[in-house]
Amino acid sequence: MNAKRRTLAVLAAVIAVLGLALWALNRSTAAEEAASSAAADGTIPLCSFSAADLSRITYTYNGQTLTLDDADGSWTLAEDSDYHLDESACNTMVTALSSLHAKRQLDAQAGEDYGLDAPELTVTVTAAGQTTTLTFGSSNTVTGDRYVQKDGDTALYTVDASRTACFACDKAGLFGSFSPADFAASEVEQVAYTLASGEKVSLTAGSELAGDGDEADSASYETVWRFAGDADTDLNQDKVQSVLSALSSYVSGQITPADGADPAACGFDAPLAVVQVTTADGTKTLTYASGTDGDYLMVEGDDSIYAVDGSIVQAVTQTADALTAA
Fold it and tell me: Which residues 6+ apart lie within 8 Å of 95 measured at CB?
């Protein structure tokens, strides 16, 4: 019995030692991973602020200067307040700058400009009343890291080039896709449009018993689209839905008055379709046109011109015959 107890005691001691060794190994591995991560991001602070304190980012990329203002978490473009920004793209810039660290501090070599004499990118960030300007030069051909200088500091630093990738973005790249019509397909009650040929098509939604003839369910109703004033002609409901989806779809680009928006140059002097859309909130006019380099939309009360996919224009220019059931 005593021998068994001694054996169990020895085994317990061995297990305890192994457990302690495993804990130490895991702790060492975690410390090494943390150190590796810190080394990858850099340890020399260049820019540090709380995202809540940020008020403005101004950056110049390939000669174009853009200024992003943050007002209570909503981004606007100072040079063009009508422009619809991609909130995600702006927030990525904040993340990149809020804790920017350099990997190395170097002594600049005589005769080398490191791409700083004519920089591709310059970023100025304002947070908590403090302004920091960073000038980014070329990349190191061996490490791939990017040279940077901080305003008021003569030292030369290198940073992970991936931290600056989000700034390789012109105005068009900052556009955030959205629906300027500002309604959902399910909210539409009536649609009336005039095509370039002069043909007028008027559609209205009604509630009808589900099913056909003897199979109609008196307890169930469904929304069915008809030509206005014509309850007898069956329409292809899928095609009608494609019209509604197109009218409420997102746009892919924006030309504002600040950009010199010219409706005539985009084909609006001879539109492909003029559409009146009625919802519970009222009636809104959408006009579609085709220019030399794409298809466009203008929304009543909005001076901007929006780029749309050709499939959108195809959907909203269907004739009455095309909408009838096959």
Answer: 51
